[in-house]
Amino acid sequence: MEPEYFYKVAFVIAAMYITYKLFMSREKFYALNRATILLSVASSFFIPLIKLPFFRKEVFVDSDASVMNVLPAEMIDETENQLSFSDIIPIVFAVGVVLFFIKYLVTTLAIIGKVTCSNKILLRKGIKLIISESIKTPVSWVRYIFMNSRDYQENSREVLTHEMAHIRHCHSFDLIFMDLACCLQWFNPAIWLFRKELRAVHEYQADYDVIASGFDVKNYQILLIKKAAGRKWSSVTSSLNHSNLKKRITMMSCKTSSRLAFLKILMPVAVSALLTLKFAESNAQTVVVTSSKDNHFNLEIQNDEQKPLVMIDGKKGSFESVQPSNVKSIRVLRDQPAKDEYGEMGANGVVEISTKDVDITVEESAAEETEKSGNMTVVEPSNSFLVIVDGEEGSYESVNSSDIKNISILKGQSAIDAYGEKAANGVVIVTTKKHKKSGTKKTKIIVKQNNPDSVTFTPEEKPEFPGGDIALRKFIAENVKYPEGLKDFDGTACVKIIVDKNGKVTNPSILKSSGNELADKEALRVIGMLPDFIPGKKDGQPADVPISIPIKFAAN
C-alpha cells in the first residue's frame, strides 16, 4: 500500500488514543479498557479503507479523439531514474518496519531458546514453570512462567498467582498483536503510548486477581516495591515489576468505577464513527470519461488505494491537472493488461491521457525549378509567439519553408530572459539553411504544451501504414494468433521497428514485453509480415524513422 494509507492509520490511532486517555484510562473496567485499546488499534487499520455508497463525487471529461494505436517509439518507455523525496519516504518507512520486526523477532527467539534449553516444572492446566538464576524478576510468556529460585522459595504463591492471571487472560497474545502493530506504525508515538496503556491494564487485571484470591494487599504492595528493579524481555512478556508502580498501587486502593462511568465507552465509539464518515467521504469518487466517437469509460474510484494510475503524456499525473478541452486521446487499461505494461503500479487500472499538441504546419506551394516564396500556415495558442529568424526579429511569412534547417521553442522565463517582455508568450527561433531547394514540402513541428521551457525540434513526419491506423489494426487482428500453450493470459507487447526511407520495416525488437515469451515471439512474427509503409521524413526528405506498435493478446 502507499504511504498515504499509513499516514491515515497514524491519524486514527492518535485520535483514538487521545479519546481513551481522556475518558477511560482512570476507570477500573479492566476488561473493557483492554478490549477498547485492542479494538481501537485494530479498527485504525480498517477505518481508512471503509467506503460508503451514499458518498460520491463526479468528474466529467469529454474527448473528441480516439485511442492512440501507433505511438512514437520515444513515448513508450521514458521512465526517469531520478530519486525524488516522495520516493525516499517509502524506503525509510520500509527500513523502519524491517528493523523493528527484526528486533521483535530476536527477542522472541531468545525466549524460545530459553524455553527449549531449560528444565520445566509442570503446574496446573498445562502451565510450565522455568527456574533460572538469570531471571531477575518473574515474567510470563504464552504458557510459561520464568522466575529465579529465591522468588520461588520466598514468594511463590503471590508471584505464581500474578503470572497465572496473565496467562489465563491471554495477555501474551495481546502483546504479540500490539508489537506487530508497532512495527507497522513505528514512526507514530500514539501507538507506543497505546502499548504502554495496554501493559498497564494487564498489570491492573493481574493485580486484581491476586487481591481477589485472598492475599493481603499491604504485603503484596511491598512485594511489588521489592521487585521494582531489574527486567528482562520486558518488550514481549508480562512482568511483575511493570513500570508505573505508583499508579498500580493507587488503583488497588481505588473504589470500583460507577455504572454511570460505563457510559464513557460511548466516546471511543463516537470518535470511530466520525472518523469512518470522514474517510468514507473522501474515498468514493466516480470519474466518467466520454468521447464523441462512442468510446465510453466509467471508472469508479472508491478510495485512495484503488485509484487507477494516471499517465499524462507519458508521465504520472492526476485527473485534476488536465483541462478537458486539452485532451487529445484517452486509453484505458484494466486488470492484467495494465499490470503487464506498468507492473504493480497498474494493479488498479491505468488511464493514459494524451494532451493536444500545438501544431505549426508549414506548407509550400509547388515550384518548378526557381525559388518561390512559401505559403506558411500557423496553428498556435491564442497568444502569438515572437519569431526570430537567423538572429533577427521576423515573421513566418518571411521564411521559405524549404530554407528551414531547424526550429527552437523558448517558453516561460527562459524566453523572457533571452528576449525581454515581448517574448512573454514564447519565442520561435528559426534557423535557415545556407542553400535553397525547390519543390513541394510539408513540415510539421509538434510542440507539447507541457514541455520544458526550452526544447529544440527537427522537422519530422511519421511513417504511415497504407490505409492508415484502421488498416494497420485490421491487418494485425487478421494475422495475430493466440499462442498455443497459453491459458488465461492477457498482455500487450510493444514492438519497436524502424521504417526506412524506402518504407521497409526493419530491426523489429521488443520494446516492452507482454510478460510471456510466446506472446512476444508471436508479436515479432506478425510485425515481420507487415507490408511497406509510406516512409517518414526528416527535413522534408525520406528518412529512417522509429515507431512502436502495441499488440494486445487477450484470452477468449
Question: What would your notes on this structure say?
Answer:
This protein is α+β, with helices and mostly antiparallel strands. Strands 3-4-6-5-7 form a five-stranded mixed β-sheet. Strands 17-16-19-18-21 form a five-stranded mixed β-sheet. It starts with a helix and ends with a strand. The model is unreliable at 58-81, 285-305, 358-383 and 435-459 (pLDDT under 50).
Give a quick rundown of the structure.
The chain is an alpha+beta fold. It contains 14 helices and 27 strands. It has 4 domains: 235 residues, no CATH class; 87 residues, no CATH class; 91 residues, no CATH class; 86 residues, Fusion Protein Consisting Of Minor Coat Protein, Glycine Rich Linker, Tola, And A His Tag, Chain: A, Domain 2.
Features of the shown structure:
alpha+beta, 556 residues, 4 domains, 27 strands, five-stranded mixed beta sheet, single chain, 23% strand, elongated
